[in-house]
Amino acid sequence: MAIETNLNPTHPGLPRQPFLETPRLRLFRWEAGDADSFRAISSDPEVMRYINGGRPWSAAELDEYIGRQIGHERTRGFCLWRMENTAAETIGMCGLQPVSIGGREEVEIGWWLAQRYWGQGLGTEAARRVLDFAWSGAKLERVIAIVMPENRASQNIMKKIGMTYEREDQHKGFRVVLYAIVGDRR
Ligand SMILES: CC(C)(COP(=O)(O)OP(=O)(O)OC[C@H]1O[C@@H](n2cnc3c(N)ncnc32)[C@H](O)[C@@H]1OP(=O)(O)O)[C@@H](O)C(=O)NCCC(=O)NCCS
Questions:
Q1: CB of 154 closer than 6 A to ligand 1?
Q2: For residue range 138-181, what is the model confidence (pLDDT) as tens digits?
Q3: CA nearest 36: which of 77, 2, 83?
Q4: Which of 20, 32, 41, 88 has an alpha carbon within 20 to 30 A of 186's alpha carbon?
Q5: CA 42, CA 98: separation in Å to the nearest integer?
């Protein structure tokens, strides 16, 4: 996997500042040059199995994804951020993005990890931090998650962070289940 050198493009020589942090993870805003660091993840059929049926993303799809996340960050103040471990390797993504489903405009939480980092609780650790930001930073009232029914690991994360099953739906041509959670507004 490519090692992200993580130089700050606006202040060369200085490291980029993470947007969110956990003990083992850092979430960064995307920059246009970040594609190389994520390519090994988005071209792994095992990672993509429950995203699009296992088809690796093309270079154009990855560029489009990064451009879209940069746009979400600008317009909404959040996105599916690039995730690094403490060794500054890009190991996945986690965050929030707007989504249209069931005739409603919603915000979904999502996570992808490089395969060698599965099963260490990192997905759950990232998801908890992002959900906390959804309430305290983004001031959202409701967050959903969309998952293929066979994706047990992802649904386990949803349950562990307090989301509950809401319904089945269709999304991008796939049958999905939808989990949801509302913020604590006390
Ligand atoms: C989904 C994903 C992020 C999970 O990350 P992870 O760091 O391995 O998850 P965690 O270690 O936090 O585990 C979460 C829970 O799921 C369980 N779990 C992990 N892998 C599992 C599997 N293959 N089947 C069933 N349960 C599984 C874990 O045991 C844990 O539950 P527990 O704490 O009660 O034991 C990772 O598998 C991934 O990146 N998959 C490919 C991309 C993807 O599908 N993203 C989600 C799209 S909706």
A1: yes
A2: 999 999 999 999 999 999 999 999 999 999 999 999 999 999 99
A3: 2
A4: 20
A5: 20
Structural domains in the chain, CATH included, are 20-182 (3.40.630.30)
Q: Is residue 157 in contact with ligand 1, taking CB distance under 6 Å? A: yes
CA 114 to ligand 1 centroid distance, Å: 11
Write out pLDDT tens, residues 27-68.
999 998 999 999 999 999 999 999 999 999 999 999 999 999
For 107-147, the DSSP string reads: EEEEEEE-GGGTTSSHHHHHHHHHHHHHHHTS--SEEEEEE
Measuring from atom 12 of ligand 1, which residue has the nearest CA?
Answer: 121
Which is the closest atom of ligand 1 to the Cα of 151?
A: 44
